[in-house]
Each structure stands twice: as structure tokens, then as C-alpha cells.
């Protein structure tokens, strides 16, 4: 396969980053978390986000320890894939001729989901060189590297073509950047009428300031969770008009309750997420917006 020179140059470009962003890149370049890797090995769809929907808790009743691990892993992957499909379903309608942009693509699962659903071209961007290399290897393995490509770039300054994209998204990556800078870049990349979708954890303004649990999540992931209101204000300033808002908080809790029981996958942050969701200080939100 021949890659266009400009695409190849973008893939090899080193992004301009702040000191904080360099720390984030170092974190993800070193990350080898089983909760990301073991789930992705099941079908070579590697997601870097959580899951939604009712969990089949009967997997916990499996008496054979090894089989229990396998069944729990598969159920968690089913829930995270359901989340990716929910987001992809709000990007359309798209055609195979359309291009989509995956901001903060991680190991690339979301771009593949969009490609499988619509046949579209996808560009994923990650601040982690290791993730970009991994994701491109997966695209080659699937035989979709002529339509799905990943770039080691800063999602605030991608260098990608203005107005070239029919849809774009962030899936649990907005807490690493300033929202105005991020939404300005999405507005630049999207054509008029293009669709932007974000799924994110945000702290609940009605609770007050960020809770102890939100602070613990920030420390765990080296991020800075934004208040819910900040998303709508920054969108309004950057030509993104919400057309659909959905509170996924209740739908997210079963994933965390099951993951807490997965001894081979726990990271120690599970109870914090559950407590934050249940005390109302933290929300899991999806916003779909049109670029005007």
C-alpha cells in the first residue's frame, strides 16, 4: 500500500506539547494496564474508556477460576464496546466517502468501530507515540490501513486539513486539555453541519466544587476533570451547538461494580468511581453537537 506523503509526514511529526502534556505522554507511553490490554486481545479492538449497560453478573458465579476470569473479561469488553457503538451511532449519517477524526484515540478501537459501521476514512490522533504505533499495527493487521490511520499528534493542533471531516469525537480524553482550545480545533476540522460527539466524566456543578472523589480520580489519571457547565460554554464559544445530551451515569455504574470484582483487572480506583457516581458529585455525559 502507498501512503500519501502528507499523511506519512503527519504520522511521523512530533507534536508540540506543554510540560504537562509531556507528562501525560510519558504516562501513556509507559502504560501497560491489563484492563486495557486483556480486554482488547479478545477481538483486537482496544478501547481506552469504560463501559455502559446492564452487566451479566452471572459471570461471577463461575466456579472455575480461570474460566471466571475469561468470562468477566469478556463481559467488561462487551460493556466498553457498547459504549463505543453508542458514540459511533451518533456520528452519522456517514458514507464511505466521509472522513472522521478521533481525538485522543488511544490504541485505536474507536476509529475501527466507526470504519466498520460506516466504511468511512478515519484519522486518529494521540499524544502517545507508542499508542500511535500500536494502533497503526492493528490497522495493518485488519487490512484497513488504507482507510484508518493514526498520528502522533497533539489534538489541540493536529495539522490536519481544515473543513475536511464529516464527524469527530472525544471519548474520555477531554479532561487532559483546555476545552476552548480543543473545541476550536474540532470546529476548524469539521465541515459546516459536521457532527461532534463527546463522552466524558465531568463533575456536577450543582454539587459545588470538585468532590474528594473527583480529586482522587484526577490524581490517579494525571488529569483535570472539568465541570459539566464548562462543556456547554466552551461549545457555544466555538460554533458547536448541542443537539443531543444524555446522562449515562446510571448506565455506567454496572461496569464499575463488575470491574471491582475482577481481581485480575482492578486498579484501585473502582470504589472511587462508584462513590462519586452515587453521591452525585460526578456524572458520565454524552453530548452530540453540530458545527455551525
Automatic annotation (TrEMBL):
Record keywords, A-Z: Methyltransferase, Transferase
GO molecular function: methyltransferase activity
Gene3D superfamilies named in the record: Vaccinia Virus protein VP39
Organism: Streptomyces coerulescens
Pfam family, one: Methyltransf_11
Transmembrane regions listed in the UniProt entry: none
GO biological process entries: methylation
Enzyme Commission numbers on file: 2.1.1.255
Domain Methyltransferase type: 102-197
UniProt protein name: Geranyl diphosphate 2-C-methyltransferase
Amino acid at each position: 500500500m502507498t501512503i500519501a506523503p502528507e499523511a506519512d509526514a503527519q504520522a511521523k511529526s512530533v507534536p508540540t506539547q506543554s510540560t504537562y502534556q509531556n507528562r501525560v505522554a510519558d504516562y501513556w507511553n509507559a502504560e501497560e494496564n491489563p484492563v486495557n490490554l486483556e480486554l482488547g486481545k479478545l477481538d483486537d479492538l482496544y478501547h481506552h474508556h469504560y463501559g455502559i449497560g446492564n452487566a451479566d453478573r452471572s459471570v461471577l458465579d463461575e466456579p472455575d477460576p480461570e474460566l471466571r476470569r475469561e468470562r468477566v473479561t469478556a463481559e467488561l469488553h462487551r460493556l466498553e464496546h457498547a459504549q463505543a457503538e453508542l458514540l459511533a451511532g451518533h456520528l452519522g449519517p456517514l458514507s464511505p466517502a466521509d472522513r472522521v477524526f478521533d481525538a485522543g484515540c488511544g490504541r485505536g478501537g474507536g476509529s475501527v468501530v466507526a470504519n466498520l459501521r460506516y466504511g468511512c476514512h478515519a484519522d486518529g490522533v494521540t499524544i502517545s507515540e507508542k499508542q500511535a504505533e500500536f494502533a497503526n499495527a492493528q490497522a495493518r493487521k485488519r487490512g484497513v490501513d488504507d482507510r484508518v490511520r493514526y498520528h502522533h499528534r497533539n489534538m489541540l493542533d493536529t495539522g490536519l486539513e481544515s473543513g475536511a471531516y464529516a464527524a469527530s469525537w472525544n471519548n474520555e480524553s477531554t479532561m487532559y486539555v483546555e476545552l476552548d482550545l480543543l473545541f476550536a480545533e474540532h470546529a476548524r476540522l469539521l465541515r459546516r453541519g459536521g457532527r461532534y460527539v463527546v463522552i466524558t466524566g465531568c463533575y456536577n456543578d450543582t454539587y459545588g466544587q470538585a468532590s474528594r472523589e473527583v480529586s482522587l480520580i484526577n490524581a490517579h489519571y494525571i488529569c483535570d476533570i472539568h465541570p459539566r457547565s464548562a462543556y456547554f460554554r466552551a461549545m457555544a464559544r466555538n460554533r458547536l451547538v448541542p443537539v443531543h445530551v444524555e446522562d449515562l451515569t446510571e448506565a455506567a455504574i454496572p461496569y464499575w461494580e463488575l470491574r471491582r470484582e475482577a481481581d485480575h483487572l482492578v486498579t484501585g480506583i473502582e470504589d472511587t468511581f462508584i462513590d462519586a457516581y452515587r453521591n452525585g458529585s460526578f456524572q458520565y455525559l454524552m453530548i452530540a453537537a453540530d458545527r455551525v
